[in-house]
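Re: export button greyed out
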Amino acid sequence: MNDAREVVVLRYGHRPGRDDRMTTHVGLTARALGADRVIFPDNAGQSAETVRGVTDRFGGPFAVELRDDQKAIVRNFEGIVVHLTMYGERVQEVEEAVREAVGLATDGEAGGATGAASTPRDLLVVVGGEKVPWALYERADFNVGVTNQPHSEVAGLAVFLDRLFEGAELDREWADADRRVVPEATGKTVVDADGDPREKGGDGGDGSEDGTAAGDEPDDRD
Amino acid sequence: MNDAREVVVLRYGHRPGRDDRMTTHVGLTARALGADRVIFPDNAGQSAETVRGVTDRFGGPFAVELRDDQKAIVRNFEGIVVHLTMYGERVQEVEEAVREAVGLATDGEAGGATGAASTPRDLLVVVGGEKVPWALYERADFNVGVTNQPHSEVAGLAVFLDRLFEGAELDREWADADRRVVPEATGKTVVDADGDPREKGGDGGDGSEDGTAAGDEPDDRD
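Workaround output, generated via the alternate export path:
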């Protein structure tokens, strides 16, 4: 989302079948909420294809990688590593330190007066799937809990990214999209990249719940 | 989370098997991020049991209901209805209006000077699963898009709740918990409700990734 630094989401661990949908949602959430790249374990090829397909249609830039060396990626990452875990420090207490570490805080926020941003650094956000190794807790510059309650790695990632970027990710623009949803109070409007009507749902009256109208979720999302 | 109003999350539609995990995560996210109650379709009994189990162990109050009358719930809800959809208005543009509508905005925010909150009203947040009926778009007081990109209903719910409560949900306290995670920079510490050590993971060295140590995700989360 920003040329100055790369924000990468690493999905740590994936059980084919059982985790397909969660892994896909981790990737789509990373894309939608401002990350530049997602790395999946190499056994998550189906999820990778789904996320690439969404990027092809709805735009980027956003990269999807399959890698078999997750431990090494974490160990050797040249930048700041955040591990999202329910055992970590409260996000509301460390988010400013994370922003400062990666250059997303301004001096103004950090107590200075110039308003200049701190130095940009790349950020790896690790989202656990299967059991994660203890070495990850030790390597992470920040173990961060979006609440210390059990809930959802997708929810934790979403809240973390929204807070990291302080909402700026919601205003990002997309390149090379072939379609675009038009936000509206009541409607389901999708237009081509050039703004021409593409499909229009929601005018089917009572019949739309039988699956004949344009769905609220892309059919191939997972 | 607040006596003045009830925030209810309605999972609209559920396909047993395929949606079990997503529905569970919707429920756990609702609980963790400040909602008071979640309503699942009556074919989502397994997800309901999981969320109730987490509430039993990690605290509440949080209610889980199974209902077969989702259309009627939406139609007859006495309060404000928000429908989360990628076709909706941008969350960053309507969140203040939602807060105002349910009494979470103060006059100060709305432009007044007294700082008094607006009148509390109950809020129903509808999260789509299967195709949702067009009537839902029409009944909703707000159709809200957490981005207009395809991603995850769990991510959308998480960001919406965090913005609705302006982060206050992260500080909520839990009643009747039998265990509590201690937030820390590096560690996996769970204590009993009275503060006594309960289990301690993360000291197993390299062996923790083989599944023998305490997992990062509760085993019964889904």
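Chain A touches chain B through 76 residues (CB under 8 Å). The button fix ships in the next patch.
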